[in-house]
Amino acid sequence: MGAFVISKRDNGKYKFEFTSRRGKTIFLSPSYEDKEACEKGVGVVKINAENIGYLKFKTPSGKFFFKLVFENEVLAISRKYTTALRVQKGIDEVVRSASVAELLDFSSDAIFLD
């Protein structure tokens, strides 16, 4: 089972990533101004994982990746993969486990307390 991880970028904006059960990043969201909008983005992916458009691309250097698109909005962009088969496995992982994935929030400045 994968997990959604919310964290802050260096510029103070929020992002989420979806990681595989082994902890490897599958995709990363764009920046959000506030945490609530970021959580809403996670919710859209969780609820609509089977109905989201998964657009596949190939970089000029021969790497493969995909974008998650819902209602003409790019929700996330995957990491780069070496083969088209691995891209498909990444998409399959999202479809299979996003709806039941846990949400981890590491956006707080004080995660560990004394």
Automatic annotation (TrEMBL):
Q: Which residues form the DUF1508 domain?
A: 11-50, 61-105
According to the UniProt entry, the coiled-coil residues are: none
- Which Pfam families does UniProt cross-reference here? DUF1508
The lineage's top-level taxon is Bacteria
Extract the InterPro entries matched here.
DUF1508 (IPR010879), UPF0339_domain (IPR051141), YegP-like_sf (IPR036913)
PANTHER family to which the protein is assigned, alphabetical = PTHR40606, UPF0339 PROTEIN YEGP
* Name of protein: DUF1508 domain-containing protein
- Source species taxonomy: Bacteria, Pseudomonadati, Bacteroidota, Flavobacteriia, Flavobacteriales
